[in-house]
């Protein structure tokens, strides 16, 4: 096959993927805007459509006990290991068209490209559309990927949605059995790895002028509630030098947190900030704020948490305030597999003579799957970094670059595997 023909095939695949994102976006619980939640009629319809696309590429397709949809491009060796490529098909309310979806459809287009050249693989290529990543309906994220990774907790079936419908009831309406979800767990020994293409959901690739970037790891996050206590007082009668103002103490702490994050090359965010009692003529006696701190380097993140802790204690002491930190969440970073990253990097270099790596600040299905096999992620540029919003936007050209990189990496893995 000539390079020209190959390029045309990739562009056609990218265009079809793009059009299919529009088609999937029509399956929604909202009249205006996209919403597909777990175990709903929309979930069922999306699965049916994706199965039809998989079958039209000659794949054997099935839905597992957790409601994830699968398609297999089979190796001639029935006992071959499995490489999984995919992402999620569910969405948040009023979502864009691409978050998650592109990763599933890219897998199907890769199979179409393999079909076009009758390429035989020494491993099974399994494409997955995870049923629930966003956690919209039952308040638990990564449900689909947790199920295949053996992380499913039986008590989740008692969780209820906003209408009081339990997950067990929703399973039954959907035609599945909640008690059987553990059977969706995969055997780690049969797995080669998991690859996920996802929109970046941030502005870095656009700023770099790049279509794709290789993910080094998914940042681990720690979250805290921080309470600063001073002394409430009258805004008119207490002199500035005699105040124990919780607001200004907390404000100084927030600025210190920003500076420590900048100095150490990670991200820290104060997204909630409230003061009490909250009167215009009252010095605040208490301030409570949140802290979310993330890095792909757990040790670095923990060191910065220690620095933040001692810095805010020093600020409190100087201002005659007290401060306490309560940790509300802790998750370690997940690193992407080095050998897979090399494959992606070589494929990028073949196209553009360079490759670019970045950290994922957001969580993805790959986090859950990493507990059973090596994982890799490729990010694709999205306009202005916008996601979780109807303005989410990608281009066919960038999609073609992503497909080329993945196809090249897949063929390299296949060659390595034979030798
Ligand atoms: Zn996503």
Describe the secondary-structure layout.
Elements: H1 3-25, H2 41-56, E1 60-63, E2 69-73, E3 82-88, H3 101-116, E4 124-130, H4 143-148, H5 167-174, E5 191-199, H6 204-208, E6 212-218, E7 220-229, E8 233-234, H7 246-264, E9 267-269, E10 273-276, E11 282-283, E12 286-295, H8 298-318, E13 322-330, E14 334-335, H9 338-352, E15 357-360, H10 365-369, E16 375-380, H11 396-418
Parallel strand pairs: 3-4, 3-5, 5-16, 6-15
Antiparallel strand pairs: 1-2, 2-4, 6-14, 6-16, 7-12, 7-13, 8-11, 9-12, 10-12
Helix pairs in contact: 1-3, 1-11, 3-11, 7-8, 9-11
The chain binds zinc ion (ZN).
The site of zinc ion has 5 residues, from loops.
Structure explained in plain terms:
The structure is a single chain. A hairpin with a 5-residue loop joins strand 1 and strand 2 (69-73). Strands 1, 2, 3, 4, 5, 6, 14, 15 and 16 form a nine-stranded mixed sheet that branches. Strands 7, 9, 10, 12 and 13 form a five-stranded antiparallel sheet that branches. Strands 8-11 form a two-stranded antiparallel sheet. By secondary structure, the chain is of the alpha+beta class. The chain has helices spanning 3-25, 41-56, 101-116, 143-148, 167-174, 204-208, 246-264, 298-318, 338-352, 365-369, 396-418, and strands at residues 60-63, 69-73, 82-88, 124-130, 191-199, 212-218, 220-229, 233-234, 267-269, 273-276, 282-283, 286-295, 322-330, 334-335, 357-360, 375-380. It is built from eleven helices and 16 strands. The structure holds zinc ion (ZN). Zinc ion binds at residues 88, 99-100, 133, 198.
